[in-house]
Amino acid sequence: MLYPTSMPLPKKSAAMASSFNGSGVLFVVSALLLFGTTQVTPMDYLLPICKTVGGGSTFVGIQFCMDTFHSDPRTAHGATYQDLAAIAVDLLTANATSTKAKIGGLLDGKTADAATAQALRSCQVLYDGILQRQPGSAAAVKGGKFSEAISSLEKSAAAAKECEDGFSKSHVASPVTVENSNAFQLAKLAVGLLYS
Protein backbone atom coordinates (compact mmCIF):
# COMPACT_ATOMS: atom_id res chain seq x y z
CA MET A 1 0.00 0.00 0.00
CA LEU A 2 1.37 3.40 -0.98
CA TYR A 3 0.92 6.39 1.29
CA PRO A 4 1.02 9.98 0.14
CA THR A 5 3.98 11.85 1.61
CA SER A 6 1.71 14.18 3.57
CA MET A 7 -0.01 11.31 5.38
CA PRO A 8 1.63 9.79 8.44
CA LEU A 9 2.71 6.17 8.22
CA PRO A 10 0.80 3.63 10.26
CA LYS A 11 2.47 2.95 13.61
CA LYS A 12 3.93 -0.42 12.58
CA SER A 13 5.32 0.97 9.30
CA ALA A 14 6.72 4.04 11.05
CA ALA A 15 8.53 1.84 13.57
CA MET A 16 9.99 -0.29 10.78
CA ALA A 17 11.09 2.78 8.82
CA SER A 18 12.67 4.26 11.93
CA SER A 19 14.44 0.98 12.66
CA PHE A 20 15.65 0.72 9.08
CA ASN A 21 16.85 4.32 8.94
CA GLY A 22 18.71 3.93 12.23
CA SER A 23 20.43 0.72 11.23
CA GLY A 24 21.04 2.04 7.72
CA VAL A 25 22.70 5.14 9.07
CA LEU A 26 24.72 3.02 11.48
CA PHE A 27 25.84 0.80 8.59
CA VAL A 28 26.83 3.76 6.41
CA VAL A 29 28.72 5.46 9.25
CA SER A 30 30.49 2.20 10.11
CA ALA A 31 31.43 1.64 6.49
CA LEU A 32 32.77 5.17 6.16
CA LEU A 33 34.81 4.85 9.34
CA LEU A 34 36.21 1.51 8.24
CA PHE A 35 36.98 2.79 4.75
CA GLY A 36 38.41 6.04 6.10
CA THR A 37 40.87 4.25 8.36
CA THR A 38 42.07 1.78 5.74
CA GLN A 39 42.17 4.03 2.71
CA VAL A 40 45.72 4.49 1.44
CA THR A 41 46.71 8.02 0.55
CA PRO A 42 48.91 8.60 -2.48
CA MET A 43 51.77 9.83 -0.27
CA ASP A 44 51.87 6.76 2.01
CA TYR A 45 54.52 5.14 -0.20
CA LEU A 46 56.97 7.85 0.92
CA LEU A 47 57.19 6.73 4.55
CA PRO A 48 59.11 3.48 3.91
CA ILE A 49 61.39 5.33 1.48
CA CYS A 50 62.07 8.10 3.99
CA LYS A 51 62.67 5.52 6.72
CA THR A 52 65.21 3.79 4.49
CA VAL A 53 66.98 7.01 3.53
CA GLY A 54 66.63 8.96 6.77
CA GLY A 55 66.22 6.29 9.41
CA GLY A 56 69.89 5.65 10.04
CA SER A 57 71.22 8.89 8.63
CA THR A 58 72.99 11.46 10.74
CA PHE A 59 72.38 14.02 7.99
CA VAL A 60 68.72 13.72 6.99
CA GLY A 61 65.78 12.93 9.23
CA ILE A 62 62.67 11.02 8.29
CA GLN A 63 60.49 14.07 8.94
CA PHE A 64 62.63 16.30 6.70
CA CYS A 65 62.33 13.71 3.94
CA MET A 66 58.55 13.45 4.35
CA ASP A 67 58.06 17.23 4.52
CA THR A 68 60.27 17.75 1.48
CA PHE A 69 58.36 15.36 -0.73
CA HIS A 70 54.92 16.21 0.59
CA SER A 71 55.62 19.81 -0.45
CA ASP A 72 56.12 18.82 -4.09
CA PRO A 73 53.12 17.77 -6.21
CA ARG A 74 55.31 15.59 -8.43
CA THR A 75 55.40 12.98 -5.67
CA ALA A 76 51.61 12.69 -5.32
CA HIS A 77 51.18 9.55 -7.41
CA GLY A 78 54.32 7.58 -6.79
CA ALA A 79 57.90 7.98 -7.85
CA THR A 80 61.04 5.89 -8.01
CA TYR A 81 64.11 6.59 -5.90
CA GLN A 82 65.68 8.12 -9.00
CA ASP A 83 62.62 10.36 -9.55
CA LEU A 84 62.73 11.47 -5.91
CA ALA A 85 66.46 12.21 -6.17
CA ALA A 86 65.76 14.37 -9.24
CA ILE A 87 63.08 16.23 -7.27
CA ALA A 88 65.51 16.77 -4.37
CA VAL A 89 68.07 18.14 -6.85
CA ASP A 90 65.45 20.53 -8.27
CA LEU A 91 64.54 21.67 -4.76
CA LEU A 92 68.23 22.18 -3.96
CA THR A 93 68.52 24.38 -7.05
CA ALA A 94 65.53 26.45 -5.93
CA ASN A 95 66.97 26.70 -2.41
CA ALA A 96 70.40 27.76 -3.67
CA THR A 97 68.88 30.34 -6.01
CA SER A 98 66.79 31.95 -3.26
CA THR A 99 69.66 31.76 -0.75
CA LYS A 100 72.05 33.47 -3.15
CA ALA A 101 69.45 36.20 -3.72
CA LYS A 102 68.99 36.62 0.04
CA ILE A 103 72.74 36.90 0.53
CA GLY A 104 72.90 39.50 -2.23
CA GLY A 105 70.12 41.48 -0.57
CA LEU A 106 71.86 41.34 2.80
CA LEU A 107 75.11 42.57 1.26
CA ASP A 108 73.33 45.33 -0.66
CA GLY A 109 71.56 46.47 2.51
CA LYS A 110 74.94 47.21 4.11
CA THR A 111 73.44 46.55 7.56
CA ALA A 112 75.88 43.73 8.30
CA ASP A 113 79.02 44.30 10.36
CA ALA A 114 82.39 43.61 8.71
CA ALA A 115 82.68 40.00 9.96
CA THR A 116 79.14 39.14 8.86
CA ALA A 117 79.67 40.81 5.49
CA GLN A 118 82.87 38.81 4.94
CA ALA A 119 81.10 35.55 5.79
CA LEU A 120 78.23 36.50 3.46
CA ARG A 121 80.65 37.19 0.60
CA SER A 122 82.22 33.78 1.18
CA CYS A 123 78.76 32.20 1.13
CA GLN A 124 77.93 34.01 -2.09
CA VAL A 125 80.90 32.34 -3.80
CA LEU A 126 79.97 28.95 -2.31
CA TYR A 127 76.37 29.23 -3.52
CA ASP A 128 77.62 30.28 -6.98
CA GLY A 129 79.47 26.97 -7.03
CA ILE A 130 76.37 25.04 -5.99
CA LEU A 131 74.34 26.69 -8.75
CA GLN A 132 77.04 25.99 -11.35
CA ARG A 133 77.02 22.29 -10.40
CA GLN A 134 73.24 21.85 -10.35
CA PRO A 135 72.56 21.42 -14.08
CA GLY A 136 75.21 18.69 -14.20
CA SER A 137 73.80 17.07 -11.06
CA ALA A 138 70.30 17.05 -12.51
CA ALA A 139 71.48 15.62 -15.82
CA ALA A 140 73.56 12.95 -14.07
CA VAL A 141 70.60 11.85 -11.93
CA LYS A 142 68.23 11.71 -14.91
CA GLY A 143 70.86 9.94 -17.02
CA GLY A 144 71.56 7.28 -14.39
CA LYS A 145 75.14 8.47 -13.78
CA PHE A 146 74.75 8.19 -10.05
CA SER A 147 78.41 8.30 -9.01
CA GLU A 148 78.83 11.57 -10.92
CA ALA A 149 75.67 12.99 -9.34
CA ILE A 150 76.71 11.87 -5.85
CA SER A 151 80.12 13.52 -6.21
CA SER A 152 78.53 16.82 -7.25
CA LEU A 153 75.88 16.67 -4.53
CA GLU A 154 78.46 15.94 -1.84
CA LYS A 155 80.34 19.08 -2.94
CA SER A 156 77.10 21.07 -2.66
CA ALA A 157 76.44 19.72 0.84
CA ALA A 158 80.01 20.61 1.84
CA ALA A 159 79.56 24.14 0.44
CA ALA A 160 76.40 24.74 2.48
CA LYS A 161 78.17 23.49 5.61
CA GLU A 162 81.22 25.64 4.87
CA CYS A 163 78.98 28.68 4.50
CA GLU A 164 77.45 28.09 7.92
CA ASP A 165 80.82 27.30 9.50
CA GLY A 166 82.15 30.64 8.25
CA PHE A 167 79.79 32.48 10.57
CA SER A 168 80.75 30.30 13.52
CA LYS A 169 84.46 30.87 12.89
CA SER A 170 83.84 34.63 12.75
CA HIS A 171 81.79 34.44 15.97
CA VAL A 172 78.77 36.08 14.35
CA ALA A 173 75.19 34.92 13.95
CA SER A 174 74.32 33.47 10.57
CA PRO A 175 71.36 35.06 8.80
CA VAL A 176 71.15 32.02 6.51
CA THR A 177 71.20 29.13 8.99
CA VAL A 178 67.87 27.70 7.84
CA GLU A 179 68.82 27.99 4.18
CA ASN A 180 72.20 26.33 4.76
CA SER A 181 70.59 23.52 6.72
CA ASN A 182 68.00 22.93 4.00
CA ALA A 183 70.62 22.98 1.23
CA PHE A 184 72.80 20.53 3.13
CA GLN A 185 69.91 18.18 3.86
CA LEU A 186 68.50 18.34 0.31
CA ALA A 187 71.90 17.41 -1.12
CA LYS A 188 72.31 14.57 1.39
CA LEU A 189 68.73 13.40 0.76
CA ALA A 190 69.42 13.13 -2.97
CA VAL A 191 72.66 11.25 -2.23
CA GLY A 192 70.84 8.86 0.10
CA LEU A 193 68.20 8.16 -2.53
CA LEU A 194 70.85 7.44 -5.15
CA TYR A 195 72.65 5.02 -2.83
CA SER A 196 69.40 3.16 -2.02
UniProtKB/TrEMBL annotation:
GO CC field: extracellular region; plant-type cell wall
Residue span(s) of domain Pectinesterase inhibitor: 41-193
GO terms (BP aspect): plant-type cell wall modification
Entry annotated with the keyword Acyltransferase: no
A Pfam family: PMEI
Protein name: Pectinesterase inhibitor domain-containing protein
SMART domains, per database record: PMEI (SM00856)
Species assigned in the record: Hordeum vulgare subsp. vulgare (Domesticated barley)
InterPro entries xrefs: Invertase/methylesterase_inhib, Pectinesterase_inhib_dom, Pla_a_1-like
SUPFAM superfamilies on file: Plant invertase/pectin methylesterase inhibitor
Keywords: Disulfide bond, Signal
GO molecular function: enzyme inhibitor activity
Tree of life domain: Eukaryota
Family per similarity comment: Belongs to the PMEI family.
